[in-house]
Amino acid sequence: MTSLARRLSLTLLVFGGLALAAIVLGPLAGSTSISLRRVFDSSVPFEGNVDAQIFFVARLPRVLAGALVGAMLASAGVVFQGLLRNPLATPFTLGVSAGAALGAMLAITFGASLAWIGMPLAPLASFAGSGVAVGIVYFLAQARHRGLSTNVLLLAGVTMNAFFSALILFVQYFADFAETFRILRWLMGDLDISSYQPLLAALPLVIISFSVFGWLARPLNLLSLGPDAAESRGLDVTLAQRAAFFSASLATGAAVSVGGPVGFIGIIVPHLVRLLVGADHRIVLPASALFGAAFLIACDALARTVMSPLELPVGVITAIIGGPFFLWLLVRRT
Amino acid sequence: MRVEVLIGAAGCCRVLGVLAVVLAVLSVTVRPAVVAFEPPYRIVSLVPAVTEMLFALGAGHRVVGVSSFDRFPPEVANIQKVGALLDPDLERILSLQPDLVVLYHTQSDLRKQLERAKVPAYAYSHAGLRDVTATLRSVGNRIGIAARAAKLATDIESRIDAIRRVSALGPRPRTLIVFGRENYALRGIYASGGQGFVHDMVTAAGGQNVFADMKREAVQATTELILARRPEIILELRADPIGPDEEKKELAVWRQLASVPAVANRRVHIIADPRTVIPGPRIVEGIEVIAAAIKRQP
Q1: What does the DSSP assignment read for chain B?
Q2: B220 close contact with A: CB closer than 8 A
Q3: What is the ipTM of this complex?
Q4: pTM of the predicted structure, to 2 decimals
């Protein structure tokens, strides 16, 4: 066994165990106490079994959503940091979340007139919004260079973020009070999806982006040496950059459409994991995905129970933990 | 004889006519206060509930500006819209030359600006059901028709008491009151906590709010909380109308919470009626609508 394989399996074992523990233990926490014996009591029909409904309808989809969103945002964070060669990059740096937020906002504000479509619009519209943002940023970064300029990418992304935020305020001006409230709530992130349907809808996107991430680990290692050095070692830099940009954007868009823009996961988790396992993307990527899942499930469990029966938005918890951590990281680096 | 009567009547009329002219001259020159009502004459109301009160008190003709959310009575369609809670249009308000502006007490910036322009303001704040009639009385007082307002307020209070007496005789089903959620999904559900006029209305109508223990107006209700509280009735209140197809689909969304008694017994009702969400003089009708929904058997 090579040393990489040994380290990889050890990492997968530890972080996989952590994620698994979170998924198993997550549904046990909540604002009400339920009895596991009654949850799995098949003599009571599901329709009449409150404990089973709380477990399978309220908690399990939520925990799985936490796993999915946490894993995607954390690994997208790793990929963006590698692509932009900037430790401060997050999945939301390039305008994906602002585009998604604008989409969701349009759906919430003008959703009443589109009610004839007969399905929840906010997830779809947020995914479409992130697609538009990614398209514009990519077009801009492509325009001045052959290949992708990461500098232009970063500048275009930051500018698009500001521009979409302005549009969000513009749309918000036309929203009524209740809609404004719901928009604000959406922006805080919410994993209470109460059905498995949003997860199933996001699954193909998860599979696509994770497959690309799997391929990306080695190219990201080479990119970290700088594009010229990577090129001289035989990497098709433009292809790798495009793959990184689109797969990470896809993962971010899918995550945001499920749980809203949950902040800080995409930056704390990759850095924490790097502190533990080093900088090799072949290990950092899977470890971040697994740890991101566990971390978001834990934050959500905290959000559900700390003030129960009232509930805090999960984005508030991740920000409260993430903010100070991020500052510590900054200070430590200088 | 008929001729005599006619002449007599004509003479009478002439005397009356002269008298009227004298009175009119007197009222203009000597006592301007003879006019039908006192100031304010030009009221701008940013609060739909107060607009409704002004019209119910017969002072609708004094209203020269309303908020962009005002829909009732139908006459408001022809009245200038001057923005609302978050976006009051000060210029437009001042251009209407109001001598009273009704605004939310949280609109402190607008209040200061009006103060500088020397325009009197009436600060409105709403809380419970009791405050609806209290506001009605104080608005009547402020615009110089206190007696009429007191009568209407007492009338509303006694009608609410009557509904209360009737509903006290029946069962008090556990009721979940939903203010809003995402379309076609049980996400972002906002429900009434144990405070505010909607909670009071449902209580008066015979319901028992499942979130009565949470002392706030709005509660974010997760699916877990709804499953755990087991409401026997779910009422979704909305101000805007809903089509039959849309209503059917929106009701079907609840089926995933099959263990909730309200869902199992098909007692989820969408009430699309502004009277249930505007704390104005139609509040009694709102309570009646809610009471009917609570009593309705599937």
Answers
A1: -HHHHHHHHHHHHHHHHHHHHHHHHHHHHT-GGGSS-PSP-SEEE--HHHHHHHHHTT-GGGEEEE-TT---SGGGGGSEE---SS---HHHHHHT--SEEEEETT-HHHHHHHHHTT--EEEE---SSHHHHHHHHHHHHHTT-HHHHHHHHHHHHHHHHHHHHHHHHS---EEEEEEE--TTSS-S-EEE-S-SHHHHHHHHTT-EETTTTS-SSEEE--HHHHHHH--SEEEEEESS---HHHHHHHHHGGGG-TTSHHHHTT-EEEEE-GGGTS-STTHHHHHHHHHHHHH---
A2: yes
A3: 0.85
A4: 0.85
